[in-house]
Write a structure and sequence with these properties.
The complex is a heterodimer of chains A (about 240) and B (about 170). By secondary structure, chain A is α+β, with helices and mostly antiparallel strands. Helix content of chain A is about 45%, strand content about 20%. Chain A has 7 helices and 8 strands; from the N terminus they run H-H-H-H-H-H-H-E-E-E-E-E-E-E-E. Chain A has a 6-stranded antiparallel sheet with strand order 2-3-4-7-6-5. A two-stranded antiparallel ribbon of chain A has the order 1-8. In chain A, a hairpin with an 8-residue loop joins strand 6 and strand 7. In chain A, helix 1 packs across helix 2, helix 1 packs parallel to helix 3 and helix 2 crosses helix 3. Chain A is rod-shaped, with a radius of gyration of 32 Å. Chain B is an all-alpha fold and about 170 residues long. In chain B, about 70% of the residues lie in helices and about 0% in strands. Chain B has 7 helices and no strands. In chain B, helix 1 runs antiparallel to helix 2, helix 5 crosses helix 7 and helix 6 crosses helix 7. The relative contact order of chain B is 0.12. The chains are: A alpha+beta (about 240), B mainly alpha (about 170).
Chain lengths: ~240, ~170
């Protein structure tokens, strides 16, 4: 092996880059050539120094937790997309059947549930702020009386209940072990629509009702319809008085 | 999907630190590094079914991070850098009378020199010094032939050596 080849192979002198024969041949040359041996020592010292400096980066504490939180948020968006595309698809199917059955005039535009779901996606980037702004726009208290986890937010809007449409915010909780999705829907009930003075919680076979109150807004009640025995899975922490 | 979340959390535990360090050396900023790292794990979740071989998870994550970084560079259109195509030929082999031991290298000074390099040269240099990556791994990450990787690496190392050892010569 000559010096030109030896110095070329020095670039490959890392574990696994050269076969055994080349490693052996290079070692023999370096043992016999002081010039190449000196170059090798310099290269290796430089690489050790740079390698140490490259790795000398302090990793901030709590970074792994924040990364895990980001993953959880991405997971929430994935679930919402799946639910919304399912709902949008069902709506589109119902309307398509309606059109086929002559229910809708031919001149009406088609409703693409999937595109509608995508159009709503901007809200999901900051659902807490979107809900706050929407409630305030309804003339309602802009904060729910329990500290709901907005990473689980699905939708908000006026929902039909007991013959009226009532402002409501819905949270979902996918089950890790089954296709089932638990949900909690918070109806914001005011005296203009229902008697609120004696509202109480209730249980049915697979549904629970919890009534929340806030002393700062005595005439408003938040009636939560949920499928889990308690609201705990939907909360970050309990911060307000429950009715 | 629940198993993908668990899988990515395991990846966070195993690779967060090295991914963050790589992000820091690429971007030169702690805030950007954390953002890049978080984005990487977020994208890893959405692409988890693409990870066929768990043994190659680290390289897969590094590749995602680099792509996230490149997208940001294109969006921001910043980063004035030196293209080594303008620098000239590689320096000749060093004469024996130059110091054999470069001593410790200041990480902050290293970052300054890295920041001045075009990403096409900065990335193979950083990956090379993370040691776990072979030339083939680096070539796969950058979608380049091995020969191109080695050429860029040689030029980048020469530039690095000249900038860092020149500093020491003037100390």
């Amino acid at each position: 092996m000559d010096c030109d080849l030896a110095r070329h192979l020095l670039a490959f002198q890392r574990p696994g880059e050269l076969d055994a024969a080349a490693v052996s041949s290079l070692a023999r040359h370096l043992a016999d050539c002081p010039a190449c041996a000196a170059v090798t020592r310099h290269e290796q010292a430089f690489d050790r120094a740079v390698g140490a400096a490259v790795h000398a980066v302090s990793v901030p504490t709590g970074g792994r937790g924040r990364a895990a939180a980001r993953v959880a948020a991405v997971r929430g968006v994935q679930v919402r997309r799946q639910l919304l595309t399912g709902i949008g698809g069902a709506v589109s199917l119902v309307l398509a059947v309606g059109i086929g059955g002559g229910v809708f005039a031919v001149t009406r535009p088609g409703f693409d549930g999937y595109q509608a779901a995508l159009g709503a996606e901007a809200e999901f980037e900051n659902p807490h702020e979107a809900v706050r702004a929407w409630l305030a726009g309804q003339g309602l208290p802009d904060t729910l009386p329990a500290d709901f986890d907005y990473g689980r937010h699905l939708e908000h809007g006026r929902m039909p209940v007991l013959g009226k449409t009532v402002p409501a915010v819905t949270f979902v909780l996918p089950s890790p072990d089954s296709p089932r999705v638990d949900f909690a829907r918070v109806y914001v009930v005011t005296p203009s629509q229902f008697q609120t003075a004696d509202l109480r919680g209730a249980n049915a076979s697979v549904r629970y009702v919890t009534v929340l109150a806030d002393p700062a807004h005595p005439h408003v009640k938040w009636v939560v319809l949920h499928t889990t025995p308690t609201l705990e899975p939907f909360l970050r922490k309990v911060s307000r008085v429950q009715a | 999907m629940a198993s993908a979340v668990a899988g990515v959390r395991a990846l966070i535990d195993a690779h967060y630190d090295s991914l963050y360090r790589y992000a820091y050396r690429l971007s030169g900023s702690a805030a950007d590094a954390e953002d890049l790292t978080q984005d990487t794990f977020g994208k890893a979740l959405t692409r988890y079914d693409q990870l066929r071989d768990p043994e190659r998870a680290k390289g897969w994550l590094f590749r995602i991070l680099r792509n996230v970084y490149l997208h940001r560079l294109r969006d921001e259109k910043r980063h004035k850098t030196v293209s080594l195509d303008q620098v000239g030929d590689l320096p000749a082999a060093r004469p024996i009378d130059r110091p054999a031991d470069p001593g410790d290298i200041d990480p902050a000074r290293l970052q300054e020199v890295l920041n001045g390099l075009d990403e096409a040269f900065r990335t193979p240099l950083i990956l090379f010094y993370f040691e776990d990556f072979s030339y083939r791994d680096i070539a796969a990450q950058m979608d380049l032939p091995i020969g191109t990787v080695m050429s860029r690496l040689a030029r980048a190392k020469a530039h690095l050596r000249d900038r860092l050892t020149c500093d020491k010569a003037t100390d």
